[in-house]
Write a structure and sequence with these properties.
Layout: H1 2-6, E1 14-19, H2 25-37, E2 42-48, H3 51-63, E3 69-73, E4 86-93, H4 96-106, E5 111-117, H5 120-124, H6 139-160, E6 163-169, E7 180-186, H7 193-206, H8 213-218
Parallel strand pairs: 1-2, 1-4, 2-3, 4-5
Antiparallel strand pairs: 5-7, 6-7
Bound molecules: S-adenosylmethionine.
């Protein structure tokens, strides 16, 4: 994260939102790292559906005197904030990642950092008329294909909306297979929109994908 924070202006207080914060492992660690080690002025909000986890995290935050770290119980879909500078989402389930990215794009955030997980929506909406049917014949490959297609389309749509994207593995496969991280750095340069729309359409047509959640949200 320190690498990405070097790329954005943090001379004024940054509002960071962790979408699908769960038990807050990432939220607490990132807050402490940015605030107490890098001395960056931040306010961090965890957004989580499960109220019991939100209550627990707020209690721990109070105990730690983490005055600028708070958690709220809400569906990401219903979360709105005046200003969001950075969106993070670690393993937000399936389309919760699309919602997080969408909120970041909509808020014109400076940075979107997410590590997606369980790519069910595209897998479910992959039709039987794929040009590459042989590639998805076996369940294990179908799952991997759905994962690649979901995240490739996500990164293309982020590029279309002016975010320079980078996709990479952030941890060894020994620890988890869910180790793809997607970072979008807002350049506000919305070039190549038509070309990117064509690329998305081509991918969807080739694999007979009926819909993509992020594309629907953005339209
Ligand atoms: C796999 S957990 C990851 C938790 C945390 N980010 C971590 O890495 O430890 C995904 C979390 O996202 C939450 N979640 C899923 N969909 C959500 C939504 N639409 N709005 C808010 N939270 C959501 C779930 O309740 C769950 O706690």
């Amino acid at each position: 994260m320190s690498h990405w924070f070097e790329k954005i202006d943090h001379s004024t207080k940054l509002n960071i939102v962790d979408m699908g914060s769960g038990k807050g492992y990432l939220t607490f660690a990132l807050y402490d790292y940015l605030k107490n080690q890098l001395r960056i002025n931040v306010s961090v909000t965890g957004v989580e559906l499960r109220e019991n986890l939100v209550d627990l995290c707020n209690e721990i935050s109070l105990d730690c005197d983490f005055n600028d770290l708070q958690f709220i119980s809400k569906d990401i879909r219903d979360f709105s904030a005046e200003e969001i500078d950075v969106i993070i989402a670690l393993h937000a389930c399936d389309t919760a990642t699309d919602l997080a990215i969408y909120k970041g794009i909509n808020a014109n955030a400076k940075l979107i950092v997410c590590a997606p997980c369980c790519h069910k929506q595209v897998r479910k909406d992959m039709g039987s008329k794929s040009q590459f049917k042989a590639l998805t014949k076996h369940g294990v490959f179908e799952e991997r294909q759905a994962e690649m297609l979901t995240d490739t389309i996500r990164s293309l749509l982020m590029e279309r909306e002016g975010f320079k994207t980078k996709v990479f593995e952030f941890i060894s496969n020994e620890h988890t297979r869910k180790n793809v991280m997607m970072v979008g750095h807002n350049t506000n340069s919305k070039k190549n929109r038509a070309k990117i729309n064509d690329e998305v359409k081509q991918l969807k047509d080739s694999f007979n994908i009926q819909r993509h959640e992020l594309e629907d949200l953005l339209s």
